[in-house]
Specification:
With 545 residues, this protein is of the alpha/beta class. 43% of the residues lie in helices and 15% in strands. The chain is built from 20 helices and 17 strands. It has a seven-stranded parallel beta sheet with strand order 12-11-10-9-8-13-17. A four-stranded parallel beta sheet has the order 6-5-4-7. The chain is elongated and about 85 Å long. The termini are far apart.
């Protein structure tokens, strides 16, 4: 053991990976560790006399392996070894971050006692993560991998090291795949709607500043989705309506009104202008309209009683912490039925009936008659392209459709529908309320029959007092955005330089930055474009008041 070399390595490592350095320093040396000299005269670390790199030319082998990674982005390195496969990666100026994953601090300590890896650790893009629990890596990755800034995510594997602890690295891979699935789904949505969320939220601040609507607690609730099953279930719904709070999704609202039913609440979460079509038949202004802060601003003009809530949009959360505290509703399921279920839960419902939640296209039919698609397609129908043809094209344009046959006929199911259904089931099974799905020809929904003890808590929902007026809030927010440090090429240095307040501001503009990232390979350019765009928008909003 070379204690001087170890101290040098740990000193360099501590600057960027202090937890890993501390863990290594208090760990014993690996008893099965040794160093083999390659044919070229370089040192090769070995465990049980099995070398972790080539016995012949580990440097050339490392360069050959690293040449596969010339793109920009973050790289996860499974195994440190002698870092022959990692050091060449640092010459790529487009590398945003290199995370080295290990589970044995004793082995790493032995390596650092015999090999000088200070050059690797001095690079600000490098992080070393060590833990025996693969699940610990999820929180680390969620904190460090920001697609809009980090770029693509790749992995490089030191095969001999992986073979030594295959179970650990298999579980690490599974953890990464699970985490990335959630991250990329969210990022894809941000690229499409990031700017729209921000514009809508800023515009809605004026209406949300004055609203005083309070939602009363609920014991039994009915939630209507807009699946074709809602048509067949209408008589059952009318018969069992009394004594229950009817919460309509915006898509199902025109179906209810067409059948002479007025809901008690209507909820809408879509930020797109298409939401307008759900309200073409009019809106009973006395009914509270429950809106995401990022909903289209025109919706605030159709109802006399608007109730705003926050979801997971970063700027929406920032508004709730610094402008006015709004109730939170879970919209993570990606569809309005999931949000309606969260609303019923927040109001204390102990029993919930679901109608029209088909999560499929029974007999190829997308929605209940009376929803927006019928007048929408009827308006554009022609002799050679009737409404049935257009609806068929609407259904079949999805390339992920599977046809499922059941006793009474068939239904189409798409991957998004499967995701929505699974999300709704997870949400429902986490709740204490008893959920009864009034099933039509759609897919089955599975909810636990054994429920947790329901709370008798008296729940009302309302917004808190404003912390400051709208104009002062926007001016203060604009000042903080302007003072946010400019991001250079190194994302790790940039993130480490931010205090908690600056990290809040950064998170609030990242969805807009995701939009700009579509047109550039540089995270720093996308972020700076988003900041400029944000400041221009805020200037127009404050001046126009």
């Amino acid at each position: 053991m070379n204690s001087t070399l170890l101290e040098k390595n740990l000193l360099c490592l501590a600057a960027t990976s202090s937890e890993a350095a501390a863990l290594i320093s208090r760990s014993p040396l690996c008893s099965d560790f040794s160093v083999i000299t390659s044919r070229e005269g370089t040192a090769v670390p070995a465990v049980h006399e099995k070398p972790l790199h080539s016995r012949f030319n580990p440097v050339r082998e490392g360069h050959r392996l690293s040449q596969q990674y010339s793109k920009s982005g973050m790289i996860l390195a499974y195994g440190l070894g002698g870092a022959y496969h990692l050091t060449p990666l640092l010459s790529n100026s487009d590398l945003s971050s290199l995370v080295i994953i290990e589970n044995d601090p004793s082995l790493v300590k032995s390596i650092l006692s015999h090999m000088d890896l200070s050059t690797l650790f001095l690079d600000k893009r490098v992080r070393l993560w060590i833990s025996e629990n693969p699940m610990d890596f999820k929180s680390f990755l969620l904190a460090k991998y920001i697609p809009v800034l980090s770029g693509d995510l790749q992995s490089i594997s030191l095969r001999t090291r992986i073979d030594m602890d295959s179970d650990f690295y298999i579980k690490i891979t599974e953890t990464v795949q699970e985490s990335i699935s959630a991250i990329t789904d969210d990022y894809t949505v941000q690229t499409h709607f990031g700017k729209k969320w921000f514009i809508n939220t800023v515009t809605n601040l004026e209406a949300s500043e004055e609203t005083t609507v309070t939602l009363k607690p609920v014991q039994q609730a009915i939630i209507t989705a807009a699946g074709p099953g809602l048509e067949k279930q209408m008589s059952h719904l009318i018969k069992n309506r009394d004594g229950k709070t009817l919460i309509a999704t915006d898509t199902s609202l025109p179906v209810l009104l067409e059948n002479g039913l007025k809901p008690d609440l209507v909820i809408s979460i879509d930020c797109q202008h298409i939401s307008y079509h759900h309200f073409m038949k009019g809106y009973p202004k006395e009914i509270p309209l429950v809106l995401d802060l990022a909903s289209p601003p025109f919706l605030t003009r159709i109802a006399d009683r608007c109730f705003f809530f926050t979801s997971d949009h970063p700027f929406s959360n920032y508004v709730s912490r610094n402008f006015r505290e709004f109730p939170r509703i879970d919209t993570s399921g990606g569809n309005v039925t999931h949000a309606a279920l969260s609303l019923a839960e927040s109001l204390g419902a102990v029993k919930i009936d679901l109608y029209g939640a088909d999560f499929s296209y029974p007999f190829g039919k997308p929605y209940a008659r009376g929803t927006y698609v019928y007048p929408y397609f009827h308006k554009s129908s022609m002799r050679l392209s009737g409404i049935e043809s257009q609806i068929c094209d609407f259904v079949l344009h999805n390339k992920t459709l599977n046809r499922e046959v059941f006793e009474q006929g068939f239904r189409y199911i798409s991957k998004p529908m499967i995701h929505y259904r699974n999300s709704l089931e997870r949400k429902g099974n986490s709740m204490s309320a008893h959920i009864n799905n009034i099933r039509g020809d759609g897919v089955a929904l599975h909810f636990n029959t054994i429920r947790k003890q329901a709370s008798n808590e008296f729940r009302m929902m309302s917004a808190g007092q404003s912390f400051q007026n709208r104009e002062d809030f926007l001016k203060e927010y604009a000042r903080l955005v302007m003072e946010l440090p400019e991001m250079k090429e190194n994302i790790n240095e940039f993130l480490d330089s931010l205090n908690n307040s600056q990290k809040e501001i950064l998170l609030s503009i990242l969805p807009a930055a995701a939009h700009f990232r579509k047109k550039t390979d540089s995270g720093s350019i996308a972020l700076n474009q988003a900041r400029t765009w944000t400041l221009d928008l805020l200037k127009r909003k404050t001046i126009s008041r």
